[in-house]
């Protein structure tokens, strides 16, 4: 049963990442192609919006970690913000490297970079650091 729950949580997290990611990617295209910002700046703005969506879905649906304690959410927001900063930095630099060094279009480079950052950086940190629930919290919140 724990393995089944773990797979279900992983799939839910992928839905959250997908919804945040689609928003992020779409806004990146709009800011780059329509507003004419350099794609690294577009990624910063669009990544922030996508992160808000991702955080909300993860907190209230995936990890159901919605304790009423404001310090608890403040801690999660702080940790999530650090993950987002790392994620945006990795996505921007990875996309830039693929574009400059390998002449890969930024839209394709972004998709390649995102796949590595999402599974190798974002998911583990979000699951095991941002929304980690220790046994003490489980006992308190279940009462």
Automatic annotation (TrEMBL):
Residue stretches spanning the membrane: 7-31, 37-57
Organism of derivation: Flavobacterium aquicola
Any single biological process term in GO: polysaccharide biosynthetic process
Family annotation (Pfam families): GtrA_DPMS_TM
Domain GtrA/DPMS transmembrane span(s) in chain numbering: 18-131
Record keyword Transmembrane helix present: yes
InterPro entries: GtrA_DPMS_TM
GO CC terms in record: membrane
Name of the featured protein: Putative flippase GtrA
Record key words, sorted: Membrane, Transmembrane, Transmembrane helix
Cellular compartment(s): Membrane
Keyword Cytoplasm: no
Entry membrane topology: Multi-pass membrane protein
């Amino acid at each position: 049963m724990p393995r089944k729950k773990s797979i279900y949580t992983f799939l839910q997290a992928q839905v959250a990442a997908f919804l945040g990611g689609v928003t992020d990617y779409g806004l990146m295209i709009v800011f780059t192609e329509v507003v004419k910002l350099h794609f690294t700046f577009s990624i910063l703005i669009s990544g922030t919006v996508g992160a808000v969506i991702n955080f909300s879905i993860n907190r209230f649906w995936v990890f159901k970690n919605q304790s009423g304690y404001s310090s608890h959410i403040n801690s999660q927001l702080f940790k999530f913000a650090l993950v987002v900063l790392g994620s945006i930095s990795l996505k921007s630099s990875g996309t830039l490297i693929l574009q400059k060094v390998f002449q890969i279009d930024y839209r394709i480079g972004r998709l390649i970079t995102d796949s590595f950052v999402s599974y190798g950086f974002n998911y583990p940190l979000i699951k095991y650091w941002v929304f980690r629930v220790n046994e003490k919290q489980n006992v308190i919140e279940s009462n």
